[in-house]
Every structure is written in structure tokens, then in C-alpha cells.
Automatic annotation (TrEMBL):
The lineage of its organism: Eukaryota, Metazoa, Ecdysozoa, Arthropoda, Chelicerata. Signal peptide: none annotated. Residues 6-129, 152-243 form the Arb2 domain. GO terms for molecular function: siRNA binding. InterPro entries: AB_hydrolase_fold, Arb2, Arb2_dom. One of its GO terms (cellular component) is nucleus. This is Arb2 domain-containing protein. One of its GO terms (biological process) is regulatory ncRNA-mediated heterochromatin formation.
Length: 301
């Protein structure tokens, strides 16, 4: 069955982003309404996904125009006749010899720069965007060519994307001595996978790992115990919880080593990054200065 095309701009959908970055209806000022046709869930879902694609392009433009990030294609040796994806990097991503911040988002239809698609459509664009020196794009894994789903080589999965970026871009091109990783939800799985496969370089350069409601599992991912121990030493996981922000939470009962867990100050999974934002960066700054002091270094910036 052929469906008529959906609009190609946010305005044509009847919405706009207000001064607070919230998606609102042009006429009523109300938030996004999913049930446009109450008895047609299929149509509502297709419309939701189409609007999500339009917003993704809008976010890409913001990353390029407002934060001056640029796209770097992946795989790095992509051929002209094959599909490719990309990541976003800052102007000094490969020349800054001091610090590098890597952002890894969650799973699903989230793309680079979006912590959560639901958050962007239903709440605040400012909460949904994440700005970083390197922004991974782990869910952009394929292209539709002549109606056929064609995978992006070396980036067929989120884990493969993370592996490719670390091996071919971070290890070979980034000059920073100190790397911080901030990962949301399934991004924690990607971070653990990278650390497992490249433990020597990861543990030598990463000084802090900040996770927000991560769904990683050292056991399920068959990580060496040293990986869990390293994450326990340099990491913290802000998880959804009714407790106050930063309150330490009970550790695992089975005695296995894991990332230290604290409350994100919200029970909503998609809000954990936003609600813990200030705490995350305070954690990164403290970890950085501790690392620098321990090495007897001075900031090059």
C-alpha cells in the first residue's frame, strides 16, 4: 500500500521550536500531539517517525551552524559507490593535546546530537541536545538504496560504530592525552565494548566515564574483570531513581564489581542526562584535575 508523503519541514507539520527549544503547535501553542487520528495507530506512528526524521536534520543543522561542529565520514576509507555514515567533531578535535569529550547516545532512532527522540519531540530541544568535541552516531547504521536496506560497512551495529571510531579516529587522529566519555543508556554498552576491545589505549587515556541510566553488563558483554574494575575507579552511573540527585544507591548484591551508582534525580529514563547535567560535568572536572595533579601536569589551554 502506498501512503502519501509527509511534510518535509517542521513548519509544514504545523509545529515550531519556541525560544525555550520546545516543540509547539503553530496555532495552539500546545506540545506535540501523537494521536492525530485516534483510531489509526499505524498512521500516527508513521507521522511520528517522519517528524522525527525532519527534527534529526534540524538537529544536524544546529550542530553545524550553532556549535560549529563538522561531519567526518565513517568508515574512514569509504568508497564513492558505498553507503556511509558520519560523526560530528569540533574544529580542534584532532589538535587539542589536552582534553577530549566523547558523547555516545542511546539506542533506537536517536541520532547524533539527540540524547532522546522522545525528549526532543515532547519536551525541550535544549535538554535533548548534547554538544561535544566528538559526537558518535551509533544508530545511523544503514541506507535505503532502491528500496533495499544496505548496511554501512564497519558500522552495521552501534558496537561496530564505536569500535571503528575509537580505532581509526580517536587512536589515530585525536591528540588529547585526557579523554572523558559521557554515555546514555545503550551508549554505556558501546563504551564498555570499546574498553574491552581496546583496554590498553582506553585505560591509558580515559580519565572519567559518566553514564546516565546505562544498560551495560560486564558479565553479558564478557568483559575482562579489569574492565569492570577500571570503570569502577573512573566511572559513575546516574540512574533513574526517586531519590535526590547524586544520592548514592545500593550496590549489587552478588558482590560483582560495577560502576558506582547514584540517583539522577528523576524517575524518567529519557530525562536522566538532563537532570544530572551539572553533576556530570562537576564529576568530570574533579576527575580531570585529580588526574592532572597526579601526573604533575599543567593545562595546555
Amino acid at each position: 500500500m502506498t501512503f502519501p508523503p509527509f511534510p518535509s519541514t517542521i513548519a509544514d507539520f504545523g509545529y515550531f521550536f519556541n525560544d525555550f527549544g520546545q516543540l509547539r503547535h503553530l496555532k495552539t501553542g500546545e506540545p506535540y500531539l501523537f494521536q492525530v487520528r485516534p483510531d489509526d495507530h499505524g498512521y500516527n506512528q508513521r507521522r511520528y517517525e517522519a517528524l522525527g526524521d525532519v527534527i534529526t536534520e534540524h538537529v544536524y543543522q544546529l550542530l553545524e551552524q550553532e556549535t560549529h561542529l563538522t561531519r567526518v565520514p565513517v568508515p574512514v576509507n569509504v568508497q564513492e559507490d558505498e553507503p556511509s555514515s558520519f560523526i560530528f567533531v569540533s574544529e580542534d578535535a584532532f589538535t587539542n593535546k589536552d582534553r577530549l569529550l566523547i558523547l555516545i547516545h542511546g539506542s533506537g532512532v536517536v541520532r547524533a546530537g539527540q540524547w532522546s527522540r522522545r525528549l526532543i519531540i515532547n519536551d525541550s530541544l535544549k535538554k535533548g541536545l548534547g554538544y561535544a568535541v566528538i559526537v558518535l552516531n551509533t544508530n545511523d547504521t544503514h541506507r535505503i538504496i532502491n528500496g533495499v536496506r544496505v548496511p554501512v560497512r564497519d558500522c552495521e551495529t552501534a558496537e561496530k560504530h564505536g569500535r571503528h571510531v575509537w580505532e581509526h579516529i580517536v587512536e589515530k587522529r585525536a591528540a588529547a592525552r585526557h579523554i572523558a566519555v559521557v554515555a546514555h543508556s545503550y551508549g554505556g554498552v558501546v563504551a564498555v565494548n570499546v574498553a574491552t576491545e581496546f583496554f590498553a589505549s582506553f585505560s591509558a587515556r580515559v580519565f572519567a566515564v559518566a553514564l546516565t541510566d546505562s544498560v551495560h553488563s560486564f558479565a553479558r558483554q564478557k568483559s575482562h574483570p579489569r574492565v569492570a574494575q577500571f570503570f569502577n575507579q573512573v566511572g559513575r552511573n546516574w540512574v533513574s531513581s526517586p531519590e535526590h540527585l547524586d544520592r548514592p544507591l545500593r550496590e549489587r548484591h552478588d558482590g560483582t564489581v560495577d560502576v558506582r551508582r547514584v540517583s539522577a534525580g528523576t524517575v524518567t529514563h529519557e530525562m536522566t542526562s538532563w537532570s544530572s547535567f551539572a553533576s556530570v560535568f562537576e564529576f568530570l572536572e574533579t576527575a580531570y584535575h585529580k588526574k592532572s595533579a597526579g601526573n604533575g601536569e599543567q593545562n595546555d589551554l
